[in-house]
Design a protein that fits this description.
AcylCo_DH-like_C; 10% strand; Butyryl-Coa Dehydrogenase, subunit A, domain 1; 3-methylbutanoyl-CoA dehydrogenase activity; monooxygenase activity; Butyryl-CoA Dehydrogenase, subunit A, domain 3; 431 residues; globular; Butyryl-CoA Dehydrogenase, subunit A, domain 2; 46% helix; four-stranded antiparallel sheet; monooxygenase
């Protein structure tokens, strides 16, 4: 990945060049989930790319370098085609295998992982559509390495029950007009999947070329974390809707709610792994100590070792929970949309329960890291604050407080999770 800076870390020499994805490195405490033979080969191809992404992640954060190059190199090794069937040029990975790789990518750089969330969601949408021209056309594109972004969420003041972005006909061609507030990863994509209101008032999902002259995407995301995801504003001015083929109504695939929330959890588990790895490496190298410490060096100090153990255990638990939830979601997806959708609803409930545990657990772990390393851990150049900031930012999306209530409502009353939800300004006036 070019002459990228190695990732500095608090330690004896001030800098560590340790790569946590090298094939010759002993397995981490979290291990590797078994994969099919083809995916084991893919893991070998992905390893050096993930290693380079991890090594450059801090420099990218400090210098605010958007990950165009990492995503281009992931495209070269066909990482975005993980779920695309082999006969279309992909790897045919299962959902369980996909989330295993998302955890690894989140550990390398969670910005890159989140930037591809909409893409992998669109792949699921295509895989869930009936066989036909639309499905085959998009699988061809995705198998060739095309990446999809998304433009759904609108400005905070936009109405909750109707998208202000509109799809209309102009000179015999469908065009898109409006503004989107969140377009995570779309700067790095070839296509955008756009959710809009059709002339008859229905919700429509359509696709647009990232390079359409009427499309402007701004890198104006100013959140405290996930700063390189390009989660900024997009303006559509007579942008051509591709293929004149649109999907109406509830445009998401059956297991979409569980999928997108589990993706956040997989990224978070990866962040926890990265925090634990940075901490253990820093403690191993650290020479700075105190006269009232319990050991001559941090590496032999039982109190420091306990903190390292707690952070590492949190990463292990988060990873294990995500793997279990991925198995449940895969079972639901393979079961299909049965008459009452129970398999998918149960998968959603399991994922919502996982959120209530994983987010507080990993946020606490990202704080304990500072207790173990002391004042030097707060240096800006160390960048250790990014783990907490990134988890905190991911955990704020689609607030888990509502999902925890849904879990409680099911536990007490047997109420199943609601159908696809919408976000926006309520029509009820405040006062």
């Amino acid at each position: 990945m070019g002459n990228r800076l190695k990732q500095p870390i608090v330690g004896r020499q001030g800098v560590s060049n340790v790569s946590y994805f090298d094939l010759d490195r002993p397995r981490s405490l979290w291990g590797d989930a078994p994969l099919s033979d083809g995916l084991e080969t893919a893991r070998s191809a992905f390893a050096p790319v993930l290693s380079a992404i991890e090594e450059a992640s801090l420099a990218a954060e400090l210098q605010r370098t958007l990950p165009f190059e990492p995503i281009a190199e992931l495209r070269q090794v066909r990482f975005p085609a993980l779920r695309v069937p082999e006969n279309y040029g992909g790897f045919g990975a299962s959902l369980v295998e996909l989330f295993e790789f998302i955890i690894a990518l989140g550990a390398a750089d969670s910005n890159v992982a989140q930037a591809l969330r909409a893409h992998f969601g669109f792949v699921e949408h295509v895989l869930s559509t009936p066989d036909g021209d639309y499905r085959r056309r998009w699988l061809d594109r995705l198998g060739r390495g095309d990446i999809a972004g998304a433009a759904a969420a609108e400005t905070p003041g936009a109405a909750r029950d109707r998208f202000e972005t509109v799809l209309s006909e102009k000179n015999g061609q469908w065009v898109i007009n409006g503004t989107k507030f969140f377009t995570t990863g779309s700067l790095y994509a070839d296509w955008l999947t756009v959710t809009a209101t059709a002339p008859d008032g229905r919700t429509a999902k359509c696709a647009a070329s990232r390079h359409d002259a009427g499309l402007e995407i701004l890198d104006d995301w100013d959140g405290i974390g996930q700063r390189l995801t390009a989660s900024g504003t997009a303006h559509f001015r007579d942008v051509q809707a591709q293929d004149n083929e649109h999907h109406y109504g509830n445009t998401e695939f059956p297991h979409s709610q569980g999928f997108f929330q589990l993706y956040h959890l997989a990224t978070t588990a990866g962040i926890a792994q990265a925090a634990a790895r940075n901490l253990s490496d820093a403690v191993a190298r650290r020479r700075r100590s105190f006269t009232h410490a319990a050991g001559e060096l941090p590496a032999s100090d039982p109190q420091i070792l306990e903190l390292v153990g707690r952070v590492s255990s949190a990463a292990h638990a988060a990873t294990a929970i995500v793997r279990q939830a991925a198995r449940t979601l895969q079972f639901a997806q393979q079961s299909g949309q049965d008459a009452d959708g129970l398999a998918i609803k149960r998968a959603e409930l399991e994922i919502y329960q996982a959120q209530e545990v994983v987010f507080p657990l990993t946020l606490d772990a990202a704080t304990l890291l500072f207790d173990a390393l002391g004042g030097t851990a707060t240096l800006r150049r160390a960048g250790l604050d990014r783990f907490w900031r990134n988890i905190r930012t991911i955990a704020c999306h689609n607030p888990r407080v509502y999902r925890t209530r849904i879990v409680g409502d099911y536990a007490v009353n047997g109420t199943l999770p609601p159908a696809q939800w919408r976000v926006g300004a309520s029509s009820v006036s405040g006062g």
